[in-house]
Amino acid sequence: AAGVVTRAADVANAYDDVPCVLEGHLVEKLPQRKDRYVFRDDSGSVVVEIEDETFGHLTVTPQTRIRIVGQVEWSSKRPNEVEVEGLAILDEEPRP
User: Fold this and answer.
1) Is residue 82 a contact partner of residue 54, using CB atoms and an 8 Å limit?
2) Nearest CA among 58, 68, 56, 53 for reference residue 11
């Protein structure tokens, strides 16, 4: 789809409110930043904002492959983030 960000690396240069559909992993929760997580895919990583209601009853670990749907949140003070509106589990990767 034209105008939709599909790679974490592309969030940095995207405009405010551009739609995002990203597939990858949440690799860590950021301390001292409410609802903020580091999301990583093959292109790189980006900070995403996911409120508790968005998680619902889902359990997501760094091994869980997920799809997040949201929009770019631009800021002059820090790198762009993604405000997540929806989250789906794609699969659980086996641990080595």
Assistant:
1) no
2) 68
Please, where are the H alpha helices in 1-96?
Answer: 8-11, 52-55
Q: What is the pLDDT of residues 18-75, one digit of tens each?
A: 999 999 999 999 999 999 999 999 999 999 999 999 988 889 999 999 999 999 999 8
- Global pTM value: 0.90
Distance CA 82, CA 70 (A): 6
Q: Which two tokens stand for residue 12?
A: 């940095």
Distances (CA, A) of 56 to 32, 52, 85, 87: 22, 6, 12, 9
CA 90 to chain centre: 14
